[in-house]
Amino acid sequence: xxxxxxVQRCLANAQAHHGLxxxxxxxxxSFLEAAAQKVDSIREPGGPLNGKLIAVKDNICTSxxxxxxxxxxxxxxxxxxxxxxxxxxxxxxAIITGKTNLDEFGMGxxxxxxxxxxxKNPHNHHAQQPPSAGGSSGGSAVAVAxxxxxxxxxxxxxxxxxxxxxxxxxxxxxxxxxxxxxHGVLAYANSLDTVGILARTVSTxxxxxxxxxxxxxxxxxxLPPSTRSRIAATTTTTASSSSSAQSPRSLRIGIPTHYNxxxxxxxxxxxxxxxxxxxxxxxxxxxAVSLPSxxxxxxxxxxxxxxxxxxxxxxxxxVRYGTRAAGPDARGGAPGAEGQRGAEAEVLYAxxxxxxxxxxxxxxxxxxxxxxxxxxRGNYFLQAQRVRRRVQEEFDTVFRVGNPLRMxxxxxxxxxxxxxxxxxxxxxxxxxxxxxxCPTAPGLPPALDTLRERNPVDAYTNDVFTxxxxxxxxxxxxxxxxxxxxxxxxGEAFPFVGMQIIGQFGSDDLVLDVAxxxxxxxxxxxx
Length: 527
Known about the structure:
By secondary structure, the chain is an alpha/beta fold. The chain has 16 helices and 13 strands.
């Protein structure tokens, strides 16, 4: 297909699905068509991204579109530069089609906390109670699901790429932390934020990932070349073993027993079992693994992420960054010169931030500020950091391959009572698993109307299966598989369920290999 025809088809889909509210801003048709014609005029074939339309989540800076983070406080912000991931897309020949809708500053699980309105799920959206599109990268997922673009970028802090992928029937990939640059990404939680990729196929996901996976000296969290070489050496060693993607019939698939709570939807549980059966039919072996800190991981996340957010969002005060509230700067003040200045500043900031931030952002700022306060820091923030370390140790224990970031640890050495990666209790190698397979979300997409009636904190439980991998920076991908529960009305309304594949740090290619094998098996079953 020519680039011009591809662009015209995407634009037609964007017009047809305008009511889903996937985009905050879109490029002009004339610009996109001219860019596509320019690509078609070049006789020499380009790379896989050449001439392809890619959408970008609106918390990633672009020089030619506003960057609002779906917040009133940034409604007039225009970046003077492209984020590194956007620049690399352009250098690969991709055409940026626009900026997608999201939960404000990436804080939410359903893409409902946006100044520009909620994103709607394209599946069953005409129903009396339309379902959630997931969040916070809901706009990016919907744009891909409805073919308004070839692929899209999102950000994943605790599942914000994988959850909307599960709800919309798309591929949602969160790479290992530090592989993709965060330069130019509006920070929510620095130690968790990861640029992710949404696409309709695993092969498309690979193409975008290959274009973006490079060290960026502008990003202090970007993995340096030395660490990338260590990861490459580790994965090369793995590829030469019997557990590699080159011999996929010998993979050891881990089944996390703590990812099977009583609250798990029957449709999800049935489909999980069917997915494991598919993998077993491909020749993989299934092994139960224990990750007992999983329930505590969610609580730790909602202490750590808001704490970082309260610090990152402090700069949006109407003076340094952000839209300033109208009206006088102050209304009275305490006696004395020092008190007067403090009161004026407090009123100015309070008015601007009160009008500029939505309810969920305010909730998390307050929660984070409390977690960092003198009286609560030891009981909450430091305890959450300990839980995070424990989660990392548990993951390292169950994987066959060691964590390349902790390669200085000797074989069999204990950390807090846990054995190091790939080791059994008696120190023998080869008892770990290659990847974990579990649901992406504990249930099917809830109706948007019901979300308004729920306690906002209840939405946090949607992240219970995605947060653990985010806490320790592991690669994870959500793959849509057929809903095996055809006997219920839910099965008819949602023909797919998101299944998550998690790998050891740096095993991104292996995670995508398993995702592609599962994808191909599903296609073959339908043929």
